[in-house]
Amino acid sequence: MTAAMDLYGLCLGGDRLWAEIGTLRHEVPVRHWRREEMPGDRPLLERCDGPTLDVGCGPGRLTVALTSRGRPALGIDISPAAVELARSRGASVLRRDVFERLPREGHWRHILLADGNIGIGGDPVRLLDRCRRLLSDGGSVVLDLAAEGHSIRTDQVRLFTEGQASEPFPWSRVPVAALEPLAACTGFEVTGVWRAARRWQAELRTTRRWEVPGA
After folding, report:
1. What is the distance between the alpha carbons of residues 44 and 59, in angstroms, rounded to a whole number?
2. Longest distance between any two alpha carbons in the chain, whole Å
3. Residue of 114, 172, 164 lying closest to 5 (CA atoms)
4. 126 alpha-carbon distance from chain centroid
5. Adjacency order of strands within the sheet including 73-77
6. Could you report the per-residue pLDDT of 121-167, keeping only the tens digit for each?
7. Residue 140 to residue 126: CA distance in whole angstroms
8. At what angle do helices 80-88 and 4-11 cross, to 10 degrees?
9. What is the SS3 string spanning 45-113?
10. How far is residue 5's CA from residue 187's CA, in Å, rounded to a whole number?
11. Which residues neighbour 118 within 8 Å (Cβ) at sequence distance 6 or greater?
């Protein structure tokens, strides 16, 4: 078995990649993530009008797009190949896990969780709690959501490419219908939900000040 991030990094070079959940398998749109822009990106970018942390930035298309608009942006990703590719495109990127110590903790204006990255770690409550502690007062999380379902679903996922498979890892899907209670229990309020180019998206804004550990 191969580590999921190693297989993902390999496919950033152009190979096709699939994700398997139980008996279902679907193609991961890695090649689309390498584009300069994807349909539906602009509403996310327009809401990031201050310093933005792009979590799970991959090849860096959104980090680059924000920088080109004159907005301070930092991408983070745990894939060495993704970080290298993003930097080659001019993005400011760190190879870092979102749950590790990060620059500007408690001072980010926005956090991007695009392309389903609310699923990172298989625990959206933990992830949004972490985002809340990274944001300044009044900051927001801007994210993509799943269209279908009524509750959060967490599965063990494996990645596949030609002749190789990854070890399983947890990943969550958060549908639009589950967003309000998720936001409420993590110190956010839903300030917008919209659809753009077949993508459901939302913005969550902080509702109260939590102490940042070590601040």
Report:
1. 17
2. 49
3. 164
4. 14
5. 93-95, 73-77, 52-55, 108-113, 135-145, 199-206, 188-196
6. 999 999 999 999 999 999 999 999 998 889 999 999 999 998 889 99
7. 16
8. 30
9. HHCCCCCEEEECCCCCHHHHHHHHCCCCEEEEECCHHHHHHHHHCCCCEEECCCCCCCCCCCCEEEEEE
10. 30
11. 124, 127, 128, 143, 144, 145, 172, 174
Compute the mean pLDDT over every residue in the chain, rounded to the nearest whole number: 93
Give the span between the Cα atoms of 58 and 83, in whole angstroms: 7
Contact 110, 139 (CB under 8 A): yes
What is the model's pLDDT at position 215? 41
Bridge pairing between strands 135-145 and 108-113: parallel
Residue 118 and residue 109: Cα distance in Å, rounded? 18
106 near 215, Cβ under 8 Å?
A: yes
Six token digits for residue 155: 């599965």
User: Shortest CA distance to 34 belongs to which of 53, 17, 52?
Assistant: 17
Alpha carbon of 61 to those of 73, 87, 91, 134, 197: distances in Å?
11, 11, 8, 22, 17
Which DSSP helix (H) or strand (E) runs through 169? Answer: strand 169-173
Write down the domain spans for the chain: 4-206
Q: Which residue has the higher pLDDT, 2 or 21?
A: 21
Contacts of residue 46, Cβ cutoff 8 Å, sequence gap at least 6: none
Q: Indicate the class that CATH gives domain 4-206.
A: alpha beta
Check if the beta carbon of residue 200 is closer than 8 Å to that of residue 174: no
